[in-house]
Amino acid sequence: MHTVDLEAEPNIELLNEINRNPANNLYLLFTRRNPTSSQTLVIDNAYSVTSSNFNPNVPTVVIAHGWLSKQSTSVNSVIRDAYLGKSDCNVIVLDWRRLALSDYVTAVRGVPAVGRGLGQFMAFLNRVTGAPYSSMHLVGFSLGAHLVGNAGRELGGRIARITGLDPAGPLWSSNSDSLSSNDGVYVEAIHTNGGTVGLGIGSAVANADFYPNGGKSQPGCVTNTCDHNRAWKLFAATVTYNHLVGRECTTGQISSSNCNGNSLHMGNDILTKTGSGSYYLDTDRKYPF
Prior knowledge:
One of its GO terms (biological process) is lipid catabolic process. It comes from Parnassius apollo. This is (apollo) hypothetical protein. The chain has 289 residues and is an alpha/beta fold. Helices cover 30% and strands 20% of the residues. It contains 7 helices and 11 strands. The chain has helices spanning 12-20, 46-50, 74-86, 97-100, 104-129, 143-154, 224-241; strands spanning 26-31, 34-41, 60-64, 90-95, 136-141, 161-165, 186-190, 208-212, 245-248, 263-265, 277-281. The chain has an 11-stranded mixed sheet with strand order 2-1-4-3-5-6-7-8-11-9-10, with helices on both faces. Helix 1 (12-20) packs parallel to helix 5, helix 3 (74-86) runs parallel beside helix 7 and helix 5 crosses helix 6. The chain is globular. The two termini are 24 Å apart.
């Protein structure tokens, strides 16, 4: 856990640099031909893409980590391995450590610029390879959830799927740059640590919002960090098994007793997925949950 001053002055010099040069961020490609050793793709460098293992004829998944993280953080490898174990696809890990390792207030302020840069990178991939937006899925954890929302917004909501994994809460509840349902064709959020003292935003922000175990605390966890991280662990498991099913809730209070509506699978890798509403589900305490 980290003590954070939410009223601290941001690092303006770093923010200006992030805004000027989105190429500071790394785009690391993994495929079944190179499942653990990345190839670096460089925006506006067509050769970096055409000489790589990128295949425009299979789905492309982008993973964006959260605050205080980088390419080696577990969220990236766990989701990457789930996707490559499931099907032939391009997995791109966005390493935005330059901003993510700064103080929280600065990171929050810089998320929209990094998101716009990611959107521009996806447009570049589309131009160079012909990979359609309908084959693209952006997945972001915590601050990364708002980041991928901004990327989708940069592209006019044309990305097939956006998944927010416990979108960050502090400084985001009334922030116009937060993840929203208009950022992609289908936008989904998985809330695992909401509430007044949680690390996640808690409130519904997507087309479909899932609240595992009520969305505040998770079985087997005793800290907010564990609850928060459970979102990406649950998502990775659903990519492999597609086994967690929510029931739609009819009232504002998310609890098992008032959520007996339509069912919808949480997570998974289906690009044509649709759905709307808020959903409750119970999970186990250990993988695959």
